[in-house]
């Protein structure tokens, strides 16, 4: 549920985050440290005395690259610079720009018409969906030859390794957080909660700041589009619930559980007991983040960097007034679980082998490179000149304790316009991967139930969840046969 990012950068993420992304979630057990997951190696290195005509750099190759949309002018400039540097090293490659952005309702048509780019961006939720339909290339051979694979962040990369095969390369990731406008709390005399906070703390904070007559809400949970179901799923996870489980070769909906009821009841409290959400609650990602940026809501739930970018560089807020919190625990002592998601680049299986290899080289071109660090340094210098802040994501493509992670931090330390996350958050973050089967369909279905809850007082949470589970099960999960 994220957008194209300007750079692939992160802060050190330690402690419970890595362990949470391992044995404490639905995904396969992840390793800790620098080592990427073991991958079945079917590749062999090319002989060093290969004939010149076998060198891919001697062959003309055209690739259609994933390109930012027109509104992202700064990011387009950075991508143009990358294209220029890539073609300087690979003059045999012709690059065609394609600003189509992945959409689950469009990818099938793109593939059928052979119009999809050579590589494109997608999300962590889409791995199983794309693999099972044959819409992404198996890049295991290219991965196993990749020099820096052992420094890639295993927490993120694991999401696109299925049955020992690699189907995508991580760009960056996030654990869903709660962003708090401290100035709005101060203006209302509401105490800033402890970072080790609970649902009750969130409720009381939101209630204390809300001023419905002035159009001010204490919190703006997203209420339309798939974002509504995505926001709510954090609370399902915090209550100990799951979206789905595997029984034999079947996928079974499990979110209509006691944990689900507890999570939906909490939304009812925010809406009807505290009157703390916007009166016009039908907000998508951009609407909710915009409300935060404009000082019309004190809290918003999202990946941190996109929210902070708008708040500081467009909304004029100060870094000290924009606080990044983990999701609240359901109860004191509970886990601060947030949805773990991310952006991935996948390669078109209809592309030729040469096109696939050049796409892989383009994807990883700036990874672990001095040129990448130089580009980062230049970006930070330009942001300083422009009077703007730079906001790194919480998770990036590289392992935080890798050699490159240390080099990146050294670049950050040279500048005072890099947003600093509180060190206290790192020990509390608990990331849980999104479900691998029809997650977007589940989000959309739950969005309908959340809209009913926000619009009608007195809804029954168990009835709503049973209704949603029946729809998801019969329409989507029953069509799946797990291999």
TrEMBL record:
Matching entries from Gene3D superfamilies are given as: Periplasmic binding protein-like II
The keyword Nucleotide-binding belongs to this UniProt entry's keyword annotation: no
Keyword Signal tagged = yes
Q: Where is the signal peptide?
A: 1-19
Pfam assignment, any one: SBP_bac_1
Query: InterPro entries attached here?
Result: Bact_solute-bd_prot1, SBP
Q: Where do transmembrane segments lie in this chain?
A: none
Q: What keywords would UniProt list here?
A: Signal
Name of the protein in its database record: ABC transporter substrate-binding protein
């Amino acid at each position: 549920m994220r957008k194209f990012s300007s750079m692939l950068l992160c802060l050190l993420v330690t402690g419970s985050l890595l362990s949470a992304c391992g044995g404490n979630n639905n995904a396969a057990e992840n390793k800790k440290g620098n080592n990427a997951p073991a991958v079945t190696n079917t590749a062999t290195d090319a002989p060093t005395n290969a004939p010149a005509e076998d060198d891919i750099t001697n062959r003309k190759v055209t690739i259609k690259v994933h390109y930012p949309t027109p509104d992202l002018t700064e990011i387009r400039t950075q991508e143009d610079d990358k294209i220029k540097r890539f073609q300087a090293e690979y003059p045999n490659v012709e690059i065609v720009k394609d600003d189509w952005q992945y959409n689950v309702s469009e990818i099938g048509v793109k593939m059928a018409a052979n119009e999809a780019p050579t590589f494109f961006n997608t999300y962590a939720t889409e791995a199983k969906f794309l693999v099972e339909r044959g819409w992404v290339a198996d890049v295991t051979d290219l991965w196993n030859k990749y020099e820096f694979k052992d420094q890639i962040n295993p927490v993120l990369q694991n999401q696109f390794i299925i049955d020992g095969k690699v189907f995508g390369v991580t760009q960056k990731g996030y654990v869903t957080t709660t962003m708090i406008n401290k100035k709005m709390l101060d203006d209302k005399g509401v105490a800033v909660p402890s970072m080790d906070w609970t649902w009750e703390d969130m409720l009381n904070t939101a209630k204390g700041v809300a001023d419905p007559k002035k159009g001010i809400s204490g919190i703006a949970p997203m209420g339309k589009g798939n974002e509504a179901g995505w926001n709510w799923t954090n609370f399902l996870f915090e209550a100990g619930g799951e979206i789905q489980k595997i029984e034999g070769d079947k996928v079974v909906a499990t979110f209509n559980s006691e944990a689900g009821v507890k999570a939906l009841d909490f939304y009812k409290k925010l809406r009807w007991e505290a009157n703390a959400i916007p009166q016009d609650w039908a907000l998508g990602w951009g609407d909710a983040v915009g409300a935060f940026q404009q000082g019309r809501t004190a809290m918003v739930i999202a990946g941190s960097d996109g929210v902070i970018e708008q708040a500081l560089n467009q909304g004029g807020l100060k870094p000290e007034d924009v606080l990044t919190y983990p999701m609240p625990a359901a109860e004191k002592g509970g886990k601060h679980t947030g949805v773990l998601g991310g952006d991935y680049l996948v390669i078109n299986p209809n592309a030729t082998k040469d096109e696939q290899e050049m796409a892989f080289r383009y994807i990883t071109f700036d990874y672990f490179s001095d040129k990448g660090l130089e580009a980062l340094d230049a970006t930070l210098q330009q942001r300083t000149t422009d009077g703007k802040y730079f906001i790194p994501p919480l998770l990036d493509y590289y392992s935080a304790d890798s050699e490159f992670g240390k080099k990146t931090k050294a670049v950050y330390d040279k500048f005072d316009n890099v947003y600093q996350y509180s060190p206290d958050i790192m020990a509390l973050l608990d990331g849980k991967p999104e479900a691998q089967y029809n997650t977007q369909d589940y989000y959309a279905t739950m969005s309908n139930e959340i809209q009913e809850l926000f619009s009608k007082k007195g809804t029954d949470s168990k009835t709503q969840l049973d209704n949603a589970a029946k729809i998801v099960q019969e329409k989507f999960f029953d069509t799946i046969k797990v291999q």
